[in-house]
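Hey,

The postdoc asked me to send both predictions to you directly instead of through the lab channel. I've kept everything plain text so nothing gets mangled by the mail client. Protein one:
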Amino acid sequence: MESQLSLKKHLLHLEQKLLKPEIRTSRQELTKLLADEFFEFGSSGHIWYRKDGISEEGIGVVKMTLYDFDIHQLSSDSVLATYRTFNEETMQHTLRSSIWKFKDERWQMFFHQGTKTKDRQRF
């Protein structure tokens, strides 16, 4: 397993990748990053499951800035990532959390949740 610092950098990189248009619009890239069992409680209030399929257009393009990233080890192969995003189009701040699992020699997102906030308050 990776050191705590390198794991944090690696998971931050994966979270940032999931915000990139070229990843969000690629079914192939999304299936690499999202576990088969992936599900999400979105900030919109919608629940989404990977098993329901990723459309040909992927999961939609967003313009977000990620900040205040941290990780919390849950087990030797599971990590909770917590961070905030700012949606530059809607001007919305959101608290976010993801559970990443190490499976098949790579980290994959198993769960994600977004909760809207009023401003950029710190944790």
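Protein two:
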Amino acid sequence: MSNDTSETDTNYSEGLRGVADVDEARIWLNERNIQDIECIVPDIAGVARGKMMPTGKFFSGPVMTMPASIFAQTISGDYPEDDDRFQHNPIDGDLYFRPDYNTLTSVPWETDPTAQLIHDAYTREGDPVETAPRNVLKRILGLYEAKGWEPVVAPEIEFYLVKPNTDPDYPLEPPTGRSGRPEVGRQSYSISALNEFDDLIDDIYDLSEKQGLEIDTMIHEEGAAQMEINLRHGNPLALADQVFLFKRTIREAALRHDMYATFMSKPMSNQPGSAMHIHQSVVDKETGANIFSGKDGEETPAFLSFIAGHQQFLPYVTCIMAPFVNSYRRFAPSSAAPVNVYWGYDNRTVGLRVPYSSPQARRLENRVPGSDANPYLALAASLACGYLGMIKGLQPDEPQTGDCSEMQKSLPRGLQEAVALFEENEDIREVFGNKFVQTYRAIKQEEFETFMSVISPWEREYLLLNV
């Protein structure tokens, strides 16, 4: 996040991404001779769902519809069982999807001229669908707007490059770089290690530029062939859209070079996990001033309450920050991943870090989310924690100045425990809405049961002949 967090523009590149309305969309598509449009919707896991249609049909046809069940689908394509708190739509009727023309951009990896356009989900009556992740984030942003506040965020997304892996029974391995050798050691911030994948990185930048997506910086992270992309700060909805599109872009660029890009939280047991750190500040909508800093540059009560809200409520939304069984493998003591909700100044061993900055750039970095988290839901959950802290006037504990990597506090250590906490907290249910909470809980419980049906290599290794 730069030194001036009052800027909340989306930083779209001129003419490459986003138009005002349907009339401008017609012109934009016609100028580029776009033949097809990918009408896409991020689901609960952050996977792009939708339809491909010819441009002519997009403008002449009826509103796009899809079954309501797309927001009740697990990562494996299954659906949770009905219970006393969650029930499927018995007829699986259609939802209606409206395009957000601010998101219109090209699909530069397609051979034919193709555009992509993110849509929002509505009921037949025109109400926002409560379980659609983009609507969940809008719901939380509405709470801020009602207070005259505007959040500003800057995500940092880590990912691994790996050799193609077509048999899931085999562990992932680092890919071979231009030297002809895979990485074996850890190469934090190494320029030479980054240069091993120059051609791929050039493609990432090129494909991103053609979509109007702006990368602030790219670095080599601690793990073998682990990278991190930092995005410029801005409006949370716009940044969630960018993370959603960046994930698609990076995967496509990697495939061009016979590699996979994975955003799994812990893809390799002997390597660090991948995070999505979220820098957050809040500005006054009228003045543009950062409400975390006073007139003389001092910390405000709002800033301390924002921190305290994260300390109190992060355990209840961990199942959003760490959405899969694999996610909890990242939370390991004595690692770069946080195992606590302590806070401190420029301390990377706590879950909540306050970077040193100018007063106008004062912010909180939430280091808990994994890179596998749905960006819309992760941003919504983090901002919800801060909001609750501010409206309740909560106070944080003392900042930690030492190494807290071994100090566990409050964060659940498994998906089932995390989901139970998510469902039980009344404040969380109120800000997210009961329907979303119960649907999300049912999906995650079904995913856990699917995971438990698979026998792991560890079990065959240590139990087969020993018990």
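Summary for protein two, as requested: Residues 2-13 have pLDDT under 50 and may be disordered.

Thanks,
C.
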